[in-house]
Design a protein that fits this description.
The protein is an alpha/beta fold. The chain contains seven helices and ten strands.
């Protein structure tokens, strides 16, 4: 059910899923905050995902997560990006600063999966996920009967640094200390597919991921 505060109950065709007005980053994926096409009001959606497939793109800053997710979005995947989730949570809570590991982030990602499941059953999540948080995400996916595949994009450290210095999707350069922190912290076992995409284009990386998750 979709409820607009002005138009009452409306259909899926009456809403815009993505909200470009909240987007702070310069890339194609927008925050997921559904609004009514008729009055532009934010709507409430009661829907729960019950099946599907989700690709999770993990990696340090500059690893290519968002860029690859953009490509998968053009191939029919509903896209959720961690930076966009932060913008939605800030908007809903009024916070100006927040930690990417706050419970509100997990709740919002869950909500966005449920919303996107109205449009299809293939999803991609690009987000920094620390090893100690893996169980929280697998619980979300399993409760929604999602087939999930975790990928860690891990170019060489210097490649990640160079990409952060030249990318234009953010207004500022990511401090190298954060690149280093996540590069060292993101160490996983056999439950995560690690891909060295140092010498791969984003399209080649997306192609590899689609083949590997089948």
């Amino acid at each position: 059910m979709i409820i607009c505060p002005n138009c009452n109950e409306i259909s899926r065709q009456d809403i815009n899923i993505y909200n470009k007005n909240l987007r702070k980053q310069n890339f194609d994926i927008s925050p997921i905050l559904p609004t009514c096409k008729h009055c532009n009001a934010e709507v409430k959606i009661s829907n729960r995902c019950t099946k599907g497939n989700i690709i999770i793109l993990n990696g340090t800053c500059g690893s290519g997560k968002s860029t690859v997710a953009e490509i998968l979005a053009t191939r029919g995947f509903g896209a959720i990006d961690g930076d966009c989730v932060i913008q939605v949570v800030k908007h809903k809570t009024g916070q100006t600063k927040m930690d990417f590991r706050e419970q509100a982030m997990f709740d919002e990602i869950t909500c966005q999966i449920d919303i996107l499941s109205m449009l299809g059953d293939n999803f991609v999540l690009s987000h920094v996920i620390l090893p100690e948080d893996m169980s929280k995400f697998t619980k979300i996916f399993e409760e929604r009967n999602l087939n999930y595949h975790f990928f860690l994009l891990k170019p060489s450290y210097q490649t990640a640094v160079a990409r952060c210095q030249t990318r234009t999707c953010h207004n500022s350069v990511t401090p190298e200390e954060w690149i280093k922190y996540f590069y060292d912290a993101l160490v996983f076992g056999e439950n995560v597919t690690v891909e060295d995409n140092t010498n791969m284009t984003a399209t080649q990386t997306a192609d590899y991921i689609l083949e590997a998750q089948q």
